[in-house]
Specification:
The complex is a heterodimer of chains A (about 250) and B (about 250). Chain A is about 40% helix and about 20% strand. Chain A is of the alpha+beta class. Chain A has a 5-stranded antiparallel sheet with strand order 8-1-2-9-10. In chain A, strands 3-4-5-6-7 form a 5-stranded antiparallel sheet. The radius of gyration of chain A is 19 Å and the shape is globular. In chain B, the strands form 3 sheets. Chain B has a 5-stranded antiparallel sheet with strand order 11-2-3-12-13, covered by helices on one side. The model of chain B is unreliable at about 15-20 (pLDDT under 50). The chains are: A alpha+beta (about 250), B alpha+beta (about 250). Chains A and B meet through strand 3 and helix 2 of A and helix 1 and helix 2 of B.
Amino acid sequence: MGEGRRGVIEEPYRWLEAVANRREYIQDQLRGATPVFAVSRPEGVFLLGAGPGRTKVFEIYNRHGMAAVGNPVDMEKLRQSVIETAHMEGFNRSPGDVTLRRLVGFSISPALKNAFEQIVAAPLIVEALFAECGAARGEDVLARVGYDGTPEYPADGVGVVFPDRERERAAADWLAAHLTDGDGLARVRGLCLAAWSALMDRDAVFDTLSVPEPLPVSLPDHGLEIALIDRASSGPAQYRMLVDADFSP
Amino acid sequence: MNGDFLSLLSSNPFSGLTVGEKCPELLEATTVFAFHFSEGVVMAGDHRATAGNVVFSDRTEKIIELDHQSLIAIAGSPAVAFEMARTLQTTFEYYRRSQLQVLSLPAKVRALSRLLRDNLPGTLQGVGAVAPLFAGREPDGDVPAIYFYDPLGAQFEAAGFAASGSGAGSIRSVLHYLTRWGKPRPEQLDRGGAVNLANRLLLTAAQFDTATGGVDPSRGVFATIRLLTSRGIHTVSEKEQIAAWEKGGGA
């Protein structure tokens, strides 16, 4: 068999191997990430991450926000890209035409998939939750987009991103089981922080995890970034960072 | 990724204003003004848009909130002016979200100047001239400022008041008189007094200018009035205007 013929046969295998190596490399890079949360609430969509401020939770557009984990430079690239797309879409059509499903479908997912499969270029080491606040709670949309561009739309109003997918799902299920419509923002924060701590504790098991009393209000050694895409906001920009006063009863 | 929406826009062209050989009767929007009162700035306008001697609309909103700290009052060609306002709204929000900080007041003032300058061909052809007013404050600033522009984009900060549009002459005259000899002067007025003065100014302008209209407190039709204070922007409701009008003695 000639050299050229062998190259043709081997190339798909090399590509698959390169993609598998890439997946392993990205997962390894993401391993130390701390979780982020998005929860659909009667007040709007609640976003939470641990960081020193504006490093994990961001405003995207009038009723859109994101919370991400990964390399800060890659998070910034993704953030800028989606902000740019949303504003061009809102300007050329109307703000109401900026929808999360379209942003994910024609912008976010293709960009991440392309970056993941371009094996000769550096990958984007980032996974993110995107949130859209609807007029009513049932119209909220959450999307989890993986580093390879795969979108998932949590149906129970709770989104979590964490490098360990199995524990991520367990945390989302635990939160969905313990959140009720009557919970105030302080309880939502407390439950998210309890889930955050459990995710970071390798020995914690969500099946047996009880709701801590009192609920935590902060994290040791970490600042908090908490935002609400406020359904009751009077202006077009519904996103706002929450401050201590927002959690008082 | 420098937060400049206008650069982003130029690399993703959007349909601009073009002028055919036969130009239709052009719409114009008048009259708008702004003055300082005790809490900040009041910006107001009538509701009339005209095309030649035809009243095209008596329900035009000419005072537009650009973001939480700035207002624009449009006078001139609505087609261009509304597009400028929309562009500025997106520009300010795009910058704030992408750069994680609010655009400074001087940058906002110059952004409008740039749009006016870019509209030079339309202005020179006489089909798209706009002479807007701008009011804004720094995010941590207490005292808002008023700016006025010429149609080519030159910007000027107003000492106490500014007016634009076909009825502006009457309003400038009255405000000049009140600023110099008024007791109280406009900058000493409380909220109700400022709202009342705004409606009276528009009625005065309408007396001498047919293109100023759409304000008739006796029929419960009031001006568009927005207040820019240290607490942000407040749109004065019809109910508040009725109360101020009645407190001020009505017609």
